[in-house]
Write a structure and sequence with these properties.
The chain is an alpha+beta fold. Helices cover about 35% and strands about 25% of the residues.
């Protein structure tokens, strides 16, 4: 069994976008270097929401990523910067990453809405827009390069 993790965040103001982009880059670097990360994708929706869909060897690997490094640093800004935030995790036998449309369907029916300080009307009504790109930008684990220099 592998773990699928899906998050959707929506910034309440464009002024947070540069810092959000910076933290996204740092967290993306962290994720591709985290043991147990299998693959993932980043995508958006037409309302300006940011989606992350990731596949993990197990829940422990995902929690190690979530609770450390750049990602942990970024999470402290979520309640202030976002007016919409939702997450869902599930286990599956299949090691294929779900596309964004399938992730949206699951998020809509079973997702957990995260506390934000100034929730939008959509957040309060538990409405989640569909992703604009079903495949998004792929993320893959970084391959370790080993040296084979011989004398």
């Amino acid at each position: 069994m592998v773990l699928v993790s899906v998050t959707r965040l929506h910034l309440k103001s464009p002024r947070y976008f540069p810092a959000f982009l910076w933290h996204t880059a740092l967290s993306s670097w962290q994720i591709i270097n985290t043991p147990g990360f299998l693959c993932g994708t980043l995508t958006t929706d037409r309302q300006g929401g940011s989606w992350t869909i990731t596949l993990w060897e197990d829940e422990s690997a995902m929690r190690q990523y979530r609770n450390s490094g750049s990602h942990r640093q970024a999470m402290r800004y979520l309640p202030r910067w976002c007016d919409e935030a939702a997450v869902i995790h599930w286990k599956q036998e299949d090691t294929t990453l779900p596309n964004a449309i399938d992730a949206h369907d699951r998020m809509e029916s079973e997702g957990h809405f995260t506390k934000v300080l100034e929730p939008s009307a959509a957040h309060q009504k538990r409405q989640i827009p569909e992703p604009a790109l079903p495949n998004g930008i792929p993320l893959y684990p970084r391959k370790k390069i080993t040296s084979t220099i011989s004398n």
